[in-house]
Fold ArsR family transcriptional regulator.
Amino acid sequence: MSDFNEFLTLDARLVILRALNEQSDGRLNDSLLADVLDTYGHHRSRDWIRQQLRFLADLGAVKNTDIGPVMVAAITRLGVDHVERRTQLEGVKRPSIGA
């Protein structure tokens, strides 16, 4: 993976965690996450988004549930801790201070 592609992937994972953290119940489906990522310039397929959700689940940052053809991600305490800079997850861009 090129350095720039790696940077984009790390950033997209952070965008996913932030979007989940902003929800009152901490959950979004892969289709809504695609819309959020598009807003931040990450135009990716739902399959790519699902790969990232599985990666984040392997880290313990999210819990995924398949509901028919839709994957729903729920942020975990570890994911919240990363967004709020209390811990750092390898493979996810570190949030900037004050963001």
